[in-house]
Amino acid sequence: MKQTAICAGSFDPPTLGHLNIIERGLKIFEKLIVAVASNTSKKPVLSVKERVALLQELLKNHKNIEVTSFDGLLVDFAQSKKINTLLRGIRNMSDYEYESQMALVNKALYPELETVFMMTEGKYSHLRSTFIREILLSGGSCKGMIHPLVEKKLKEKLK
Ligand code: ADP
Predict the structure, then answer these.
(1) Is 10 helix (H, G, I), strand (E, B) or coil?
(2) Rounded distance from Cα 10 to ligand 1 centre (Å)
(3) Within a domain: residue 37?
(4) Per the domain annotation, does 132 fall within a domain?
(5) Residue ranges in the chain whose pLDDT is less than 50
(6) pLDDT tens, position by position, 55-87
């Protein structure tokens, strides 16, 4: 498939589950734009700049990945980039319910937009950025959940 897709999220922090979806997405799409949402209602631990820098470092070996951030609606960002495909990861039924509604809302706003869902790999299905933040805040280890670089950065921030 010769196409570019946007893989957007809050990535606060990026987990191995996010990276897995992005890397598998490259088997389907020619290019991916990994877009950090800067206007989520969640109170972030890492700034948008820090999340973009981490993702750039983690994905630096992939020449066909661009990491950036956006403000406002994802559909507006997609239109400004002239891209009409979104890649989303699905972990479980609650993701499916949320993501399917989101896809329909986005399609109502931007009818040419298609959302492609990719099922997580089982070993990542429990990974959620909120859990990572809570584990590290309480002094636990996130080995096997996030890249060591991300763990180091988060520990510095949560000190
Ligand atoms: P989170 O829900 O962890 O805060 P984001 O808002 O950053 O994640 O989500 C961005 C995208 O990545 C969404 O499509 C979400 O379903 C997907 N995603 C998040 N964690 C995983 C995972 N462990 N496996 C697969 N997809 C995931």
Answers:
(1) coil
(2) 8
(3) yes
(4) no
(5) none
(6) 999 999 999 999 999 999 999 999 999 999 999
